[in-house]
Each structure stands twice: as C-alpha cells, then as structure tokens.
Design a protein that fits this description.
Helices cover 33% and strands 20% of the residues. By secondary structure, it is α/β, with parallel strands linked by helices. Helix 5 crosses helix 6, helix 5 packs across helix 10 and helix 5 packs across helix 11.
C-alpha cells in the first residue's frame, strides 16, 4: 500500500449480553430477556459508527466502520443456519456499501456455522475471523503473565479449555513446545484424543486429555480459556494458588467471583490490543480508548497492509498465519495493552500482592480431585 492510500475495513459487532442492548435502548432494562432477544432478532444489521484516526508506525492509515448485528450469542447459536447466514451476508453488504475492502467478524459471529466460509463466498470483499492474531496474543499474554508470576513454563502444567476449537488447536500446538505438561480440555473425548495424538509426536510437553474443566484447572499453573461456551466454567475454588489464567473467551469463561474472592491468582483478559495512532471508534464497546480485541486488530492490520484477502477462515488455523500476523502487528505498532481484567488495568503493585498472597496460601489438595 502506498503512503497516500487509506486502508478500509469494517468489523461486525453484536451484543454479548442482554444488558448490552440497554447501552443504546434503555427501555429494554424493563423487559424480559426472551422478549428483547425475540424482538431484536428481526431487526437487520446496520451501520453503527465510523472509525478514524488509525495510523501505523510505518505511516500507513486506515479507516473503518462498525456494523451492528443485534443478535445475542444464544440467538446466533440456536437459530437455523440459513437465517444466520442471511443476517451475516446482509451485514457484509452494509460493509461493502461503506467502501470497506475487508470485513472482520467479532465474538460469536466468527464461531457460528462454518466460521466465515459461506459469508466469504457471498461477498465481494475479503473476510477474516481474526482468529490467527487472537491465538498469537493469547499465548503471548499467558506466557508474559507466567513470567511475572515466576512460573517457568519448562516446569509448568498448562491447561487449554476449548482445546479442539480453531483457536484452541493452534494454541495447543504452540504451547506444547514450551511447557512440561499440557492438558487438553474439551467436551468430546474422541476429538481430544485425535488432537493429543498429533501433538505427542515431536512435542516437548507430556500431553494429557480431560473432559472435566474443574479437574484440569486444579492441576494447572497456567490456564488458557478459548472455549465457545456461553456459561462460566471456572469458579474461585477451582484455581491453585499462584496460577495464571488468560481468559480469551467472550463471554468470559472465568467467574467474576474469582476476582472478588481469590487475591492469590492472576487472571487476565486475553487478546486486548492497543491500536497505533489516535483511533476514534465512535462507539463505547466496553474497552478503554485505543483498545480493541485481537480479532478486530487482525482486520485493521490487514487493511493497513493492503492485504485484502480471506485471511483466517474455517476451523483450521495455520501456524504460519499466526506467525505472519504477529510479525505484521509488530511492524505496524500494535501491542498487548498490558494485564487487564474486566477492562481494568492490573498494576505492577497488584501483581506483587498476588505473588505474596500465593506464597502464603496452602496448595490445593489435587489428589482429592480424583474422587470428584
């Protein structure tokens, strides 16, 4: 892309919780959740805001648009696929009309159905789920947090919740090169064993599988959550003192009660990225200024680079794409925003307090877990 060109992108957003509707439509607070979901199901996608002020470290610029799809995760997952695909294609048409040349999928829109493949076939612009950069930053964040907590990966046990999903699979491939033991966690035993079989050849880690989240977490020093589950999976009593949890899932897999009751574990939001320049998103989507999720960052990076191609689609993510998008992110000045949880920064002093509390807390009786 030449210095005079401006990269053009669009990104699809949708409400993760019923409360999200109330940010714009206050009256929905007084209505039953099921009614709100049903009414908004029949409202088509629309333009939400114009995004300006993005400037790469190379001098490249980008502008974009948020396209809103008023469907909750439950509606997306429970509706017939033809209906969901129609809505996604409608959203893509809105992006095309604005002049976007690449369309990024946020939250559950990148999970439902075939993860962007059908959408890409029906649009005249490129599509990406952003999962390559999400995977890259999930691992980067988890290992940075482990280092701050004085956890040496080569001696550590790590668990990946949602290991057989698209992000989980490539994260497992990467993390198996660093840790002593890797526990793959998912609902289906056969899929787990298939993945474990591939990883056991040539991996540094001893690879185990587990279908019970709690049992895996209680044994782990490092936990990475990339599950598509809509429910909380990790509670305060599940974590061992001094553990690190990188919660990439949206909605979050870690209960808010963990932050309230466990001062001896470091839990951080995964994949929160600082965008270069002075970006104005024109929308409050719950993150501080200049911050976006990694999936959106991938879309912006590709626009800055002039790479208008279907980049990350479908279930499989290639390790080469993860490495490439990481290099492009560094080139353009994107970086992890530091440690955050529920959109709040975690200071160095707080990390030190967590480490001190972990040293004074008795370890979990993991052996007792076998009786659960």
């Amino acid at each position: 892309m030449t210095g005079s060109d401006v990269g053009k992108f669009a990104f699809l957003v949708h409400p993760l919780r019923i409360d999200d509707f109330a940010r714009k439509y206050a009256f929905t607070r007084r209505l039953p959740s099921s009614l709100v979901e049903q009414v908004f199901k029949w409202i088509p996608p629309r333009l939400v805001s114009h995004i300006t002020g993005i400037r790469s470290a190379t001098g490249a610029r980008a502008e974009g648009w948020f396209i809103g799809l008023p469907l909750t995760p439950r509606t997306l997952m429970e509706s017939p696929l033809p209906f969901v695909y129609r809505r996604l294609i409608q959203a893509g048409r809105v992006a095309e009309k604005q002049g976007a040349r690449i369309f990024g999928l946020g939250a559950f829109t990148k999970i439902v159905g075939d993860r962007g493949v059908t959408l890409a076939r029906n649009l005249n612009i490129a599509v990406t789920t952003g999962n390559s950069y999400t995977a890259a930053t999930a691992i980067e964040g988890a290992l940075l947090a482990a280092a701050r907590m004085d956890i040496a990966p080569k001696n550590a046990t790590a668990a990946i919740i949602g290991a057989t999903g698209s992000i989980g699979t490539v994260c497992s491939e990467i993390l198996a090169k660093s840790v002593s033991r890797l526990i793959l966690v998912a609902r289906t035993h056969e899929s787990l064993e298939s993945l474990a079989g591939r990883l056991r050849t040539g991996s540094r880690a001893h690879v185990d599988t587990e279908t019970e989240v709690r049992r895996a977490v209680r044994q782990s020093d490092i936990v990475l959550t990339v599950s598509s589950a809509t429910d909380v999976l990790i509670e305060p009593e599940d974590l061992r003192p001094g553990a690190v949890v990188c919660d990439v899932a949206r909605p979050r897999n870690v209960s808010r009660r963990v932050y309230e009751r466990r001062n001896d574990v470091l839990v951080m939001d995964g994949g929160v990225i600082e965008v270069p320049g002075e970006p104005d998103f024109g929308l409050d989507f719950g993150l501080p200024p200049r911050m976006v999720e990694a999936c959106m960052a991938e879309t912006i990076i590709l626009a800055l680079e002039g790479r208008y191609e279907n980049y990350t689609l479908g279930k499989d993510i290639s390790l080469s794409k993860v490495e490439e998008i990481s290099a492009l992110a560094r080139k353009h000045g994107f970086r992890l925003s530091g440690f955050r949880r529920f959109e709040r920064a975690i200071s160095d002093e707080e990390v030190e307090r967590i480490k001190h509390a972990a040293r004074t807390k008795p370890p979990l009786d993991v052996a007792a877990e076998s009786s659960l």
